[in-house]
Design brief:
Elements: H1 5-10, E1 16-20, H2 23-31, E2 35-39, H3 45-58, E3 64-68, H4 83-88, H5 92-103, H6 120-126, H7 128-138, E4 145-148, H8 155-163, E5 167-172, H9 175-184, E6 188-192, E7 198-199, H10 205-216, E8 224-227, H11 233-241, E9 246-249, H12 263-271, E10 277-280, E11 288-291, H13 294-300, H14 312-329, H15 333-338, H16 356-369
Parallel strand pairs: 1-2, 1-9, 2-3, 3-4, 4-5, 5-6, 6-8, 8-9
Antiparallel strand pairs: 7-11, 10-11
């Protein structure tokens, strides 16, 4: 076991935590000495139970965790969930816009002009009742960590963690938020720079890690997992030199052999450089980094409507993107052009598809033995400045 507070807290060999929506990656990373964390916000309780049962049967008793998403601010947060009410808050122009974007790429989807409750499952799971239902399922399994992907975990979530002898982590993007997390009783801070895929702030990882480490000292020396653009062991080592106790990585698993990402999007990621991502509110209503495609570019255009707040924007975006993904998998060229996924700026170093266990080994080799990663030695895909 490496000498790290994260290793001690989670009973793992190596302080690398993998956020993923793929159960196979969870198992592979945990069996390789890290800790896989399954993203649950897009699942029903029944789906989550099925996934966690499968993980238990294949993980050989190794530690793993579950991630939920409970924002501190969003439309209807303090009200009883009502999908129909939320749907009525979406102006018709948003349904027309998404339909026109698809039509411009050869996709006929007249059903998308109707605003309905499609895509509302995400919204339901970001409410307290929805998140509690997911965690009730999670705690029927031997998880070691739960994480909130957006904001300070509610008091009831922290209590659930303590009652079940399970560490509570939370993602954050500013020093102020870090202090609030420590005061709330969070066990592990996932300090995420703007380079991160998915929801992210505006401060770089290189600046944020030491700033947070310094800021929290008067309130408690809570261990930090560095996140945001970290896809190699050398980057992890740099983050640990700045005060982190380990790394939380999400993007690096997207191009692995086990990844749930559609092969077309995986090919795009392998070919992409670090400038081919965008931090946009177009998918969830909050800033999240994703792969640049004509879909993201359409929402960045001056003629595009301003993205709606969470959870309304997912109700606009997800039905359209689900249609895109289905057609892309069937070979539709227009859909393949539009297809996107959350990924961080580290995508520029993710230039081959290898197994998740091999990724963990690369991190270990770089960090423990100072050997260069094969991906570090690959030819850069950054555009020339000429």
């Amino acid at each position: 076991m490496m000498n790290s507070r994260i290793c001690e807290m989670l009973d793992i060999e190596f302080p690398l935590v993998a956020f993923t929506h793929c159960r196979d990656v969870v198992v592979a990373v945990s069996k390789a000495g890290g800790c896989g964390v399954l993203g649950a916000v897009g699942m029903s309780p029944e789906q989550l139970e099925k996934e966690l049962k499968w993980i238990d049967e294949h993980i050989d008793g190794k530690p793993y965790g579950v991630d939920v998403l409970i924002p501190n601010k969003m439309v209807g947060k303090d009200e009883k969930f009502d999908a129909d009410k939320l749907a009525k808050m979406i102006p018709q122009e948003y349904a027309d816009f998404r339909t026109d974007v698809l039509a411009n790429h050869g996709i006929d989807a007249p059903e998308l002009r109707k605003i309905d409750t499609a895509g509302s499952s995400f919204a339901a799971n970001t409410q307290s009742d929805g998140a509690k239902a997911l965690l009730d399922v999670a705690f029927k399994h031997p998880i070691k960590i739960i994480a909130n992907a957006l904001g300070v975990p509610p008091d009831w979530m922290i209590k659930m963690g303590k009652d079940n002898d399970c560490k509570v982590a939370a993602l954050l993007g500013t020093a102020e938020h870090a202090i609030n997390q420590v005061k709330a009783g969070v066990d592990i801070l996932v300090v995420s720079g703007t380079e991160a895929g998915g929801h992210c702030g505006s401060v770089s990882t290189m600046v944020l890690i030491p700033e947070v480490h310094q800021a929290i000292q008067p309130y408690g020396d809570v261990p930090i997992l560095a996140a945001g653009g970290i896809v190699t062991g050398k980057q992890m080592a740099a983050a640990m030199a700045m005060g982190a106790s380990g790394a939380w990585c999400g993007s690096v698993w997207l191009t692995t052999i086990e990844s749930e990402v559609d092969p077309i999007v995986k090919e795009k990621m392998v070919a992409a450089n670090s400038s081919q991502t965008v931090r946009s509110r177009s998918r969830t209503g909050k800033h999240s980094r994703q792969l640049v495609t004509p879909w993201t570019q359409a929402w960045e255009a001056e003629s595009a409507p301003e993205p709606l707040p969470m959870p309304l924007q997912p109700m606009v975006a997800e039905p359209a993107l689900q249609k895109v993904n289905k057609l892309a998998a069937g070979g539709h060229e227009g859909a393949q052009d539009l297809a996107t996924y959350w990924v961080g700026q580290g995508v520029g170093l993710m230039n081959q598809s290898i197994s998740a266990s091999d990724v963990v080994q690369e991190f270990k080799d770089c960090l423990l033995y100072t050997s260069p990663s094969p991906r570090d030695l690959s030819t850069s895909r950054m555009p020339s400045s000429a």
